[in-house]
Structures are given as C-alpha cells and as structure tokens.
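Q: What does the assembly look like in three dimensions?
Context provided by user:
Components: two
Sequences:
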Amino acid sequence: MENIQLSEPHPSLTIYNTLTKQKEPFRTVQPGKVGVYLCGPTVYDKAHIGHMVGPVIFDCIKRYLTYSGYEVTWVVNITDVDDKLINKANERGISMLEVAEENIADYNFNLAALGVDQIDHFPRATDCMGDIIALVQSLVDEQYAYEAEGDVFFDVTKDGDYGKLSNRTVEGTHGDGGGAAARKRNAADFALWKSAKPGEPSWDSPWGKGRPGWHIECSAMSKKLLGETFDIHGGGLDLVFPHHENEIAQSECCHDKPFAVYWAHNGLLRRDAAAGKIGGRAERDASEPGASAPSEPGVSAPSEPGASAPGEEAVSGKMSRSKGAGGLAELIERQGGERIRFFLLRTHYRSTVLFSEPAIEEAATGLETFYRLFKRYTRVGGGDFYALTAPTTRGASSLTVGNDPALDAAETARTKFLAAMDDDFNTGGAIGELFELAKIANKYCDDHKLEGGAGDAGSVATFELLLTTIKELANTLGLFLQAPAETGGAASDELLAAAMEVVMTLRAEARIAKNFATADAIRDGLKPLGIVIEDRPTGAEWTGGGPDAVDGVMQLLIQIRADARAAKDFATGDAVRDRLKEIGVTLEDRAGGTEWVKA
RNA sequence: GGCGCCGUAGCCAAGUGGCUAAGGCAUCGGAUUGCAAAUCCGACAUCCCCGGUUCGAAUCCGGGCGGCGCCUCCA
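A: Here is the predicted structure of the complete assembly.
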C-alpha cells in the first residue's frame, strides 16, 4: 500500500487512535487542513440521546481544531436506504423517502438544540448512488468483490490486512453469514450491493436492480467529499466491527492507500450500571417473552436502593422500545439543549456514560453557576456576556500576567484548559478549569466590590477580561454561545399560575387585615400585565396574562417584598420568599436589586 | 470461546510514574445577610483486592474479583 507523507506534528495536540491503540501527535494529510468523517444515523426512527454523543464531541473537535488554526471539513452521512427503513415504510404505509425525511427533520432539530452546527456536508446514501456503484464496480474489476445472483460481496480473503482495526482475523469472525450465506464464498464476506426483492426501492446497476450494502456508502461518500485518504474517521465504539473494519477493507483495497489516519471512537451511553447501551440489544429484545425475572426473593437480599422494583424494570424495558427510541426531542424540551451538551462533555468522549435525567439535572446545577456569573457581569457594567468579543483563534493569552493575582490565576487555568483539550480532547478536565475561572471571576468581583457601581473602570475592565477568557475557552466546547432558550410556553403557563396563586393569597391576606393599600397596589400592579382581578363573593379570580406576564408578576412580588421589608414587616417579606420557594422560584438579593430564578 | 474497555470520596468525574490526587453535585463549618438566596473561605479519598518492578505507583507488570462492549442491526 502506498505510503502517505503526513505534515509535521502539532506542537502539543495528541489524539487517541483506535487503529494503533495509543495517543499520537496530530499530523494532517494536507498541511493546515483536516478532513473529518463521522458515521451518522440510519434514519428509520427518531433519534435517542445516544445518537448525540458523536455529533457533540465532534462538534467540539472541529471547534477546537479550528481554534487551533486548522481549516476543517466535517462530513456526517445519513443512511436513508436500509432494511429497517423499508420495513418501517411498509408498516406505516408510506414511502421509504417519507420515513427518512421525517427522521432527518427530527435529527436536525436535535442537533440544532444541542448546539451542533459545525457540520459542513450531510450526504445521503440515496444521493450518492453513482459514486457507490462506481466504487463497487471498481472492486469487482479488481477481483476484491464478486457477484452472485444479483448480490455483490466483498471477499475478505483478498484483503491481507482485514481485521486490523478491530484486531481480529478472518477465522475469528465466526458470523453465520446471515441470510445470504449460501451465496457467499466465506461467512465473513459482506454485501456491497443487495439485489432488490419485489416491491423494494431499487436502483439500476450493472448487477441488476438493487441497493447498496450498509458499509459501502461511507467509503463512497468520504471519497467524494474528503478524498481517498483523510484525517479523522469517527463513530460510536459499537461501529468498530464490522462497519469500520469493512470500510477500511473496501477503501484501501480500492485505492491502495490508507483510508483514514486517525480513528476516533466515542463511548456509548447506558441507562445504569447493569444495563447495556442505550438502544442496544437488551432494549430491542425487551419484548421477548420470558425476558427477565430478576432477583430471587432470596436469602441474603442486600436490598440495594435502586435494585428493588423488579416489576417496574420489566415494564421499562418494554416502554423503552416504544418510547425510548424517540423521546429525545421531549427530553430537550424538558431539559434544554445546553444542559444535555454540558452533561455529555463532563465525561471524556471515550468513556461509557451512565445516562439518566437526574444526572443531567445534577450537571445543570453546576451550569447555573456560569449563568449567574453572566448576570453578575451585566449588573456590574451593563454589558451582555453573550455579546463579548473573545479571541476565536489560539494565540497568546490576552490576560496580562503580573498586573493582578486574579489574572495570573486565570492564565494558569487557561493553560490547563488548553493542555486538557490538547490531550485527546479531554473536555471533562477542561470544564474543571472553566469552574476555576468562574471562581476567580466571582472572587474578583467580591474583593473589588464591583456590584452596586462601586468598581473603578480598571477593575471593571479586569473583570471583563476574566469573562472574556471564559467565553473564549467555553466557545471551543460550543458552550455559552448564546443565552439558553427560555422555558417553553406550557412551562411558563404553569409558572404563571403558580405565581399568581402566591399573589392572590397575599392579597387575600392583606384584605382580611384591612390593609387595602397593599391589596389595591397588587391589583393595580397586575393591570399593565394584562391580568385583571375580580373580587367575587366566593373569592377573587384572575384572568389574562400571556407568556411575558410571568416576569412582571415576579417583579410585582419582588416589589411587595421590598416594600414590606422597608416597613420592617419581615413576616410578609419572608412569606413572599418562602411561598415562591415552594413553587420552585428563588429570590436573590443583591446590591443592584432582587432577581428571581426558576429552579 | 475470541478481541477489547473499565473499577479514583455519599454520587458524578479529571489525573495514567514524583509537589498538598483537579473540578462538579450533596453534606458540614465560617464570612456575608434582618432571616435567606447568591458569592467567597474551609472540611470531606488508606485511588477494587493481592503480589511484583522502582529511590518512588492511583498511574507500569502479573494474578484475582466485579462491571461493560464487540464478535449479529447499532451512535
């Protein structure tokens, strides 16, 4: 096989290569340019969260490489021809294309919500038939593949390197050959082209009507968009064999050149320690009868907290089959994309991640630290964190070392952040440094009493520099690019109702106490928000109020509390705060006023 | 059976030969606050077990135990 001359290594960046099973200095096929190919989804169903791991980490990889001065082209393929798509189309009485379109739309929505916007090309198998057929033909011509009754198979015995990625031998792959076994020369041979059964979608080819095998599309698309040898090929760890092994076999036999230089595989998501990967066999087979009768009501019965509820377990397997495959859009609706992205990036991309919604919420608690700091920045200087201009390329630090201990500390954290990212994109370690920077900024703000307009211009500028550094680094992770979307309409309606209940209770109490000034102030205060109060013999009722009214109601409550506190009526003031807490809203008193936060 | 990965505090998680083992969540002290919230300061780890290599090991090697993946569609 022809040897490829790679560029000089990057001075500090290393990347783990599944092919060599070690971290390697980063070199490129073409100086300054990087071609990245990530195996995307087979769009026969809605995406689940496991489908987002690769896109999120590769989105970071592209951002970080770009930041490091490379020109990156990133391709994610869409498999829109496949048995499962055909089956789904038949079940639902619609075309394969319609199934694909629906799920591609879902996939794109999910990517956008998680901030994955760096993908340059989104090739679909059905748009690349000419390239696929040409590649298969070339393999047949070179005797690496053979035709059998309209099918075309790759002959693994013709590839001396077969198995090098997944570290196996042709003998070691003891598959049964699948349904097409009879036509294969060797059980490990795999289909490049599948003949069409009656009624199936098909394309004309030199071997008759048919469609491509799964693996060949990636070889064809990567060649078309990135060339015969490109830099980084990614995908889930579960794709190493047979998918990526077969891609290598096809492409390297066809071109007599290395296919991809680095193979980067992300770890898989699991529901809990004892479960398989999300969307994995255990979940798919959950409808099998006699699936599981967990835990004998036995002697030792350790009674672990989570180990109980076997009945629920048995049901949840089934649920995940019908609901679990989809549900990502709903999860995003509940949690918000940035929290999910943050959750995924806390762990190194090659690790297994135990996914659960409480785990996302725990991670999100940490995210709030940053959001609060950004609000604090606004209070200090009136600026918007998201509008700050931060460096987009990796250069000398803008932190002027030596002027202030805070800047020195920030410079140290920045250096550690970059070192972590240089070390095989260690986003978890990098995020730790982001927290360090947040602490430095908060402390600086405390020490220099910047809130309440007491800070001198120089201190405010230093504070801003600290925030700019957070933005510079976080943006390479695709975090804090824009303010997180507000909670959805339904959620804000609920919040409005809950807040109004607090208001109405307060007002009723004021009226009982003959404190009509307060009661009337509440009613007058609500009017501009479009909320009308009517006192009836059975009690007061309220109507109106749109999504924008929530903040107004909160402001009113904050005002009521402020008035009560000014009048030393701490009972009322505390009652407001405590009742809001019951509906998940916390009040935060600061130099510049009180703010409300929905948990 | 074959090929791999993993086991760090109550939980999550960096670190993979050498300063006090990052960081987050939770908890407990302190500063601050009318009381809170937020913020800051502080507390909180015999690095799964046993052996070996080494001046020195969470980190390397060997052996256990436990968990997971792939070998069949999969991110």
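Follow-up: Confidence is low (pLDDT under 50) at residues 287-325 of chain A.
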